[in-house]
Amino acid sequence: MSKLFLIFLFFSVALIGLTQNTPPIIPLPKSFQPMNEVFKLKDNLSIGVNDPSFEKEAQYLQKQLFVVKSITVFLADNESKADIVLKKQDPGSKIAGAYAMKMDHGKITISAMDDAGIFNGIVSLLQLVSMSKDNSVSCWNIADYPLYPWRGFMLDESRHFFGKEKVKQLLDWMAFYKLNRFHWHLTDDPGWRIEIKKYPLLAYIGGIGNHTNRNAEAAYYTQDDISEIVNYAAERKIAIIPEIDMPGHARAANRAYPQFSGGGSERYPDFTFDPGNEKTYQYLTDILKEMNVLFPSEMIHLGGDEVHFGNEQWNSNPGVKALMEKQKMSTLAEVEKYFMVRMADSLYAMNDKFLAWDEMADISLPINKTIIFWWRHDKPEQLKKALDKNYNVVLCPRIPLYFDFVQDSTHVTGRRWAGAFSDLQGVYEFPGKAVVGKARQDQILGIQANLWTETVGTGTRLDYLTFPRMSALAEAAWSEKRDYGDFLHRLDRQLPLYRAENIYFFNPFAASDNPEPQY
Length: 519
Ligand code: TNX
Fold this sequence. Notes:
Layout: H1 3-19, E1 31-40, E2 46-49, H2 55-69, E3 74-75, E4 84-88, E5 99-103, E6 108-112, H3 115-131, E7 136-144, E8 150-156, H4 164-176, E9 181-185, H5 201-204, H6 223-235, E10 239-246, H7 251-256, H8 278-294, E11 299-303, H9 318-326, H10 332-349, E12 353-357, E13 370-374, H11 380-388, E14 392-395, H12 398-401, H13 424-429, E15 444-451, H14 459-466, H15 469-478, H16 484-500
Parallel strand pairs: 2-3, 2-4, 4-6, 8-9, 8-15, 9-10, 10-11, 11-12, 12-13, 13-14, 14-15
Antiparallel strand pairs: 1-7, 5-6, 5-7
Bound molecules: ligand TNX.
């Protein structure tokens, strides 16, 4: 960065500092008003609820006040005398997750009609608390609701496995930023990361290896681990959506159970499951049944991407040939569709929604049980197709929402697309005006960033690619009105929180602070 630019940055940040009248909260609330008072946080304050359904949220707040500030408050049995009240009451918006917060020196009241709303209010309060000095919390009156119901983050743990503690830390930060969907990419070519009781070799053998070391010791989540993480996420109002990628990206599974492998090409041997073997459908459905038990979100992502990478051998597979004849199919693309429709039916039969990458916009399925993820930023026609077919869509285009792409022109490890990458401002301003026309807006469930991990072998690098872009993602998903300068100012104030947690983040104000880590 040039000196001149730094001087410019310094003065613009200083200027914003002088005129700053937004609360130190990311994502920025819809409307707010400074109260010019402080609420003094101290031991022996009490939290009350006017509805027993908010007791879990009261406990969460109690616990976090202790974690963040070592302050012990208690739960009151009478809300009328409590200092902090969680109230079932119309917050002024009917949107799910809406809340209002009123604060003065003697009392804080968070009101909402649903527990997600109460939780969102608690998170705003906790951000103010984290920013407070001497436990004097600045008071704001806030009325707030999210722009999108789907505010997602995806982690690929097949390419590299990070484990329970890292995932919990990510869930903590997601909650801090009001992100509410964790998409967990648990299977792919390098490794299968979830225990399936009926097919134990998936974890024992499929779990061996990763993208950089094919002999790495088996790494996977047991079903107990999964339940622990699902509960941890639920406490933070985050739904977990697991992904079992099929019919392609299936090499790890195929190493464990080669009898269901059928496909591949010279470059990608054993890349797909065998759509020409009737038993494959039962096998995969059995796996999905266990997933359905483990994940209460009632939706499973079945991938469906990049099948053409390695389905060449379907041409010579006798089972596939027989299937094509029987079903009167003439192309491999039809076989792919046939396979996915059958697997989607398995999910529908369990009352789960079918989620898939944008390749699957080509098939026609019940629109209220299907969600399409638009990822190919270079194929806007695929997004248009999904919308024209009336599907609900999550937007996660590579540029700017793939976090394995670099975020700064000087970075060398990580992806680019014809030179383009995913910088903080690009994430912040997404989707902008042009991506989706007004008429189709209500089919957009939300936005999601995807962290693929071919180039992410350590927690340090995971941090670096995630922070601070996760904060920009959060504001893009929550707040309709955006002001990048004001956002940067609020972000700057949060950097000490990253440091306090030993997060190795990219510092957009002083890139040399933390050099780019390699793999
Ligand atoms: C494409 S996104 C993929 C992933 C890779 C990613 C790397 C998608 C549906 N498929 O398998 O990890 O690019 O950026």
